[in-house]
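To illustrate the input format used throughout this study, we show a single complete record. The first block contains the structure-token representation of the backbone; no residue identities are included at this stage. The design step must infer an amino acid for every position from geometry alone.
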């Protein structure tokens, strides 16, 4: 800083009003807010109707919320001249479109600041409205309109998509109306190692028809670029992808495959619990005490947990639980194996073991085996296509849950989709290139 060149202090430049075509003429600073008196720099004395030069008539004022400095709300009191045409008598006020939209309550810098606060700093609209000293509706409308115009409506955000993730999402926890939306994720950055997954779109409803319609609305050249679609076990998504992007490989991600095995293990444990003790799990029941330990990966078990499982499986009445637990652990180990080819072979062997000579297997293991065999191509496709796990989709779902909680819920689906896109659409580097 010792070699820096300093100039005379300039409030206009400091508050970035020169970008808006304004110049500061006065200030009033209180503990609650700062008010800057401004005037427009460019004259506007030529009649828009007949082209004659007008004469100054009087002055009007317009208040605009501006970006805060030090979290002190800043208001611009802009004084504008009004002119009367000497030829036709038309009266108009000085143009200030550079500073704000017509009839807007926020300056263009305030709108930009609010958008960056929501997208980059993940602030709530309520906090942004407080910083601007405007109503919540005013801030929300400005943020969504600017975000839609600058970010969401930009068609280039769909460019380069090669790997899609699709999943359902509960956006509203009420019984009224459709609570579900279909979430479409771009997993290409994960596959290429260039960044995190990003939200592409959200569509109301969860069905084959919804996903198929969304894919059909994309250009043919765009659909031809899609190589992989990661999804859960819902066959509707698989059928829609097969019809609209037939060249893309469907991959059932590990998150949902392991979930199938864990559900089978839970159902087996509950059935054996009822068969042996005649009631649901209670404190002190061995199977109920071990319900979480059973779902822990074998490599993560402590000595105490291992001893608890050994004692549990020593009881011959728990033989069915032991069988399903073994299948669950083999499935998890296959996905966790550092060598993908070896992990794939382990999983193939597990599917064969669950679908051949099944007479000695419990009903839950046989059902799991049939499901794995029916979707074997999709399940095994994960090992040939790194970075196609729908777990990243689940991670985005978690961020959306946090957004809904910080906003204390949403009632308008259109606003919810727009806020979700701003939150997880990967727009941060566009607003701030230095942010990765």
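Output of the design step:
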């Amino acid at each position: 800083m010792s070699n820096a060149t300093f100039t005379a202090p300039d409030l206009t430049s400091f508050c970035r009003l020169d970008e808006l075509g304004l110049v500061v003429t006065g200030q009033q600073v209180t503990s609650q807010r700062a008010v800057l008196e401004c005037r427009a720099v460019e004259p506007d004395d030529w009649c828009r109707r007949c082209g004659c030069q007008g004469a100054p008539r009087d002055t009007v004022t317009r208040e605009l919320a501006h970006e805060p400095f030090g979290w002190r709300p800043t208001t611009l009191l802009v004084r504008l001249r009004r002119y009367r045409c000497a030829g036709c008598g038309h009266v108009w006020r000085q143009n200030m479109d550079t500073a704000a939209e017509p009839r807007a309550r926020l300056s263009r810098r305030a709108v930009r600041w609010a958008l960056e606060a929501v997208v980059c700093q993940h602030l709530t609209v309520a906090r942004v409205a407080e910083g601007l000293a405007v109503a919540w509706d005013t801030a929300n409308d400005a943020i969504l309109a600017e975000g839609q115009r600058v970010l969401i409506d930009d068609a280039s955000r769909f460019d380069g998509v090669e790997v899609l993730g699709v999943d359902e999402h509960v956006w509203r926890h009420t019984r009224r109306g459709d609570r579900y939306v279909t979430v479409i994720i771009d997993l290409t950055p994960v596959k290429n190692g260039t960044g995190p997954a990003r939200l592409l779109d959200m569509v109301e409803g969860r069905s084959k028809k919804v996903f198929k319609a969304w894919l059909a609305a994309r250009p043919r050249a765009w659909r031809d670029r899609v190589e992989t679609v990661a999804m859960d076990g819902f066959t509707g998504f698989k059928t829609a992808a097969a019809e609209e992007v037939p060249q893309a490989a469907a991959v059932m991600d590990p998150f949902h495959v392991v979930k199938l095995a864990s559900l089978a293990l839970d159902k087996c444990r509950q059935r054996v619990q009822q068969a042996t003790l005649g009631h649901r799990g209670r404190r002190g029941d061995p199977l109920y005490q071990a319900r979480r330990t059973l779902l822990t990966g074998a490599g993560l078990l402590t000595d105490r947990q291992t001893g608890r499982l050994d004692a549990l499986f020593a009881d011959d009445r728990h033989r069915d639980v032991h069988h399903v637990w073994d299948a669950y652990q083999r499935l998890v180990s296959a996905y966790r194996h550092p060598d993908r080819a070896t992990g794939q072979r382990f999983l193939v062997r597990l599917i064969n073991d669950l679908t051949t000579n099944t007479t000695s297997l419990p009903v839950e293991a046989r059902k799991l085996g049939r499901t794995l065999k029916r979707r074997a191509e999709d399940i095994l496709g994960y090992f040939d296509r790194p970075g196609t796990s729908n777990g990243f989709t689940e991670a985005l779902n978690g961020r959306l849950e946090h957004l809904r909680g910080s906003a204390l819920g949403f009632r308008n689906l259109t606003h919810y989709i727009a806020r979700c896109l701003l939150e997880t659409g990967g727009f941060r580097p566009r607003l701030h290139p230095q942010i990765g």
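Structural context for interpreting the output: The CA atoms of residues 22 and 40 lie 5 Å apart. The longest helix spans residues 254-277.
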